[in-house]
Amino acid sequence: MTGHKRTAVVTGGGSGIGLAIADRLAVDGHRVAVFDLDPSGFPDGYTVDVTDRDQVDHALTEVRWAFGPVTILVNSAGQEGYKRFTNLSFDTWNRVIDVNLNSVFHCVQAVLPDMIGEGWGRIINISSSSTHSGQPYMSHYVAAKSAVNGLTKSLALEYGPAGITVNAVPPGFIDTPMLRRSESRGLLGRTIGDHIQETPVRRAGRPEDIAATCSFLASEDAGYITGQIIGVNGGRST
Ligand code: NAP
């Protein structure tokens, strides 16, 4: 890592991609706090439902007190969903929008004052490669993640002058508990091995692949990269 020790918050950092990002930012020398429904996998974990603004604000107060202003935010909390659109209840639609999109609204809005105050910030939103061409039975999830990409671009324009970069990382096919749950419920259509055969680099992604990209985007060196949607997908952007 080049440069300063910062305070970072990683949502969804209790598992999978978020946990790998939190571990990597800690190795990079940052003070890292994880917000998750079950944060027990990480030393500085806070039990937070990121769809609840009061819980986000409360945990942020504790993080600021312990570590100082938050200048790196990675939004990785997410929830997938599989439902034929005609069978999709409005409650399920709303829940998936809440976890994948509204959580980003809450966390970004709550953390921005710290970044503006410091004149420096890095926001990284984990979206999904499904936003490139859509995904059957995942209309609610793809709608939410596509909105996250749009939000990313707009915030980049709005807060670039304040020294804050905002980027999205849409992962491809990453081997995590979320993916394994989907496979065991028969929701991937085919096996993970079939998907690997359709991936140019011929392997599933690892959480560490996403973490390495986030590490760079959070660094001083990435200061001229903003408003970008940076796919990490082994060459398969569907
Ligand atoms: P994961 O292992 O299920 O991790 C997601 C984490 O988010 C879990 O720890 C989960 O907590 C937490 N979470 C869910 N709802 C939350 C809430 N309301 N408040 C706080 N934490 C919450 O999934 P992953 O595969 O690492 O996914 C990480 C991100 O990458 C997600 O945004 C996902 O949509 C995206 N993504 C993943 C893939 C992939 O192939 N794996 C592909 C594209 C995009 P609990 O486990 O306690 O519920």
TrEMBL record:
Pfam families: adh_short_C2. Residues 6-172 form the Ketoreductase domain. It comes from the Bacteria. NCBIfam families: PRK12826.1-2 (NF009466). Belongs to the short-chain dehydrogenases/reductases (SDR) family. This is SDR family NAD(P)-dependent oxidoreductase.
